[in-house]
Specification:
Length: 252
C-alpha cells in the first residue's frame, strides 16, 4: 500500500441481515486530502463511512466481508476499536454536544484517554477550539452549557471535540445538512484548513459542496461505488453515464 494512502478498502461487502448494503467497494483515500462521497439517499455512503472506524460494530446483525486498512493495518483484525476511533474521529449529521459545559465537552475525550492534568486540559481545550475556529466566540463562556450555542457553533464544537483527542483522520457524515448557509460556509472553510493536518472523508448530499471542498469524489449508487476520481473530472468528465446523469440532476 502506497504511503500516500491513509485509508483503503478492498472488496468490501456489508450486509444488514440478508440485505446487502455495500457491494465489493474498493477505494483508496489519500493523506491530507478531502474525499467526498456522493450519491442518492440510501445508496450506501454513510454505511461505507462507518466501516472505516467500525461504527457499524454497534449495529446488530451486520456482516462485513473484505478488508479495511488504516496506515497499512487491517482495522478489523489488528486494531483495538477504542484506539481506532481515537485515531479516526467522526462528526455526525446533527450536532450532538454532550449536555455539559463547553469546556467539559472538549475535555471529555482527553480525560477518557487518561489526561487529568488541569493545565494540560486547558491547553487542549483552547487549541481544539482555535483549530475549529470557535475560540473567539466562546472563550468567555467555557463554563456555560454547550447546548446554548447555535447549531453552527454546536457543529464546530463537535469538530473541536474530535480534534481534542488528536486524531489522524476525520470522518464527516453530512456535517452541514442541518445548518444555515453562513454556518455551512464556516464549516467548509474549516475543512479546507483542517486538511493541512488531517485526512478527511465526507458524505455530502450537496453536490456544490463536494465540488467546492473535495480533492477526490466517489459516486455511489445502490451500494456500489460507480467511480472515483479527481473531483473536477467526476463533475466535468465522468467516465460513467450514471455519474453524469446524477450530477446533472436527471435522478437522485
Amino acid at each position: 500500500m502506497d504511503t500516500a494512502l491513509k485509508l483503503q478498502t478492498k472488496n468490501l461487502d456489508l450486509f444488514y441481515g440478508s440485505f446487502q448494503a455495500l457491494h465489493a467497494v474498493s477505494m483508496d483515500m489519500e493523506s491530507n486530502r478531502v474525499t467526498a462521497l456522493i450519491g442518492p439517499s440510501g445508496c450506501g455512503k454513510s454505511t461505507f463511512l462507518k466501516t472505516l472506524n467500525r461504527m457499524n460494530d454497534l449495529i446488530d446483525d451486520v456482516t462485513i466481508r473484505g478488508e479495511v486498512y488504516y496506515d497499512n493495518t487491517n482495522v478489523y483484525e489488528q486494531y483495538d476499536v477504542i484506539e481506532l476511533r481515537k485515531r479516526i474521529g467522526m462528526v455526525f449529521q446533527k450536532p450532538n454536544p454532550f449536555p455539559m459545559t463547553i469546556y467539559d465537552n472538549i475535555a471529555y475525550g482527553p480525560k477518557v484517554h487518561g489526561i487529568t492534568n488541569k493545565p494540560r486540559l486547558d491547553v487542549i481545550v483552547e487549541q481544539s477550539l482555535k483549530a475549529a475556529v470557535l475560540w473567539e466566540e466562546v472563550k468567555d463562556r467555557l463554563n456555560k452549557p454547550a447546548l446554548g450555542l447555535s447549531g453552527g457553533q454546536q457543529q464546530r464544537l463537535c469538530i473541536a471535540r474530535v480534534l481534542a483527542v488528536e486524531p489522524d483522520v476525520i470522518l464527516m457524515d453530512e456535517p452541514t445538512s442541518a445548518l444555515d448557509p453562513i454556518s455551512t460556509a464556516k464549516i467548509e472553510d474549516l475543512i479546507d484548513e483542517l486538511k493541512k493536518n488531517y485526512t478527511i472523508v465526507i458524505v455530502t448530499h450537496n453536490m456544490q459542496q463536494a465540488a467546492r471542498i473535495s480533492d477526490k469524489t466517489a459516486f455511489f449508487l445502490n451500494g456500489i461505488m460507480i467511480e472515483m476520481d479527481d473531483t473536477e473530472k467526476i463533475f466535468f468528465k465522468p467516465e460513467d453515464k450514471r455519474t453524469e446523469d446524477y450530477i446533472s440532476g436527471r435522478f437522485g
